[in-house]
Amino acid sequence: MANGRIGVLIMSYGTPESLDQVEAYYTHIRRGHPPTAEQLHELTSRYEAIVGGFFPLRENTNKQVKGLEETLGREHPELEFVCYQGLKHAQPYIEDGVELMVKDGITEAIGVVLAPHYSTMSVGGYVKRAKDRAAELGLKIDFVLSYHLHPKLLEALSNRVERALGKFTDVSRDEVRVIFTAHSLPEKILEMKDPYPDQLLATSNAIADRVGITNWQFGWQSAGQTAAPWLGPDILEVLDTIRKEENVKNVLLCPIGFVSDHLEVLYDIDIEAQALAKELGIHLERTESLNTDPLYMETLSDVVFEKLKGAAKLS
């Protein structure tokens, strides 16, 4: 195993740090094509709706990076782990994180994404960018690809489902439809035999088994606005269908594909889905985000350390 400092590149999608950065952020997402004035207004309005004058989204990721470094230090005091941040669509970019590790004298690193489920279009893209820059700079780096069935992750998510079910005081828990959700991706991943949908269902099944629920299903959310079809049905469509066709009146959303509070949770669920639920006469709740839950920090610490041990055995 490595001697000296071990770098940990913590990768995530990224988010603007303030409202005035929204245009640059979405220009990067759109591969250099700025959003139209109408699109920019809609996007900015969504951020304004969830944050008002305070912009907490980036701070969530910063706290997770700090939390993982502290957890690694506590659980493995014999080693010195130094955590770096690398974002897909905002600074510091993934390449910036790799470059900073090399500048700091790091020679061995592990990369991990703040997303438990692997897809070639999500986690695979992060890994490729980090791997390419590391190869150019001569940094030895290995990657955690998924951790969707880690026991501590399942425990943290199951605890949230249990707590949230307690908010439905007027009905039995069996009458509450639990819907697990994750970010939709283009349908073409199905042709690629991508593991993303299966991993999400595996996590959903495992949580349902732990909590003892049978009244559940899966739904997609936050699809991109592109010409190509995305995985569905969308959660808004699901809510409409189960209310009108099955007379479901109580719904708990559990966004297992997201590990912190950001736009897809605070707007797409808490505002957009909640507004539709009220219109349909549905009592809608959602589970709390993982954020810096100690069990999630320990999950990341475990998978980083296991990957480091595995890399040591191969070298």
From TrEMBL:
Q: What does the entry give for GO biological process?
A: heme biosynthetic process
Q: Which reaction does it catalyse?
A: Fe-coproporphyrin III + 2 H(+) = coproporphyrin III + Fe(2+)
InterPro entries given in the database record: Ferrochelatase, Ferrochelatase_C
List the record's Gene Ontology CC terms alphabetically.
cytoplasm
Main localization category: cytoplasm
- Where's it found, cell-wise? Cytoplasm
Q: What does this protein do?
A: Involved in coproporphyrin-dependent heme b biosynthesis. Catalyzes the insertion of ferrous iron into coproporphyrin III to form Fe-coproporphyrin III.
Q: Which family does it belong to?
A: Belongs to the ferrochelatase family.
Query: What is the protein name stated in its UniProt record?
Result: Coproporphyrin III ferrochelatase
The gene it comes from is cpfC
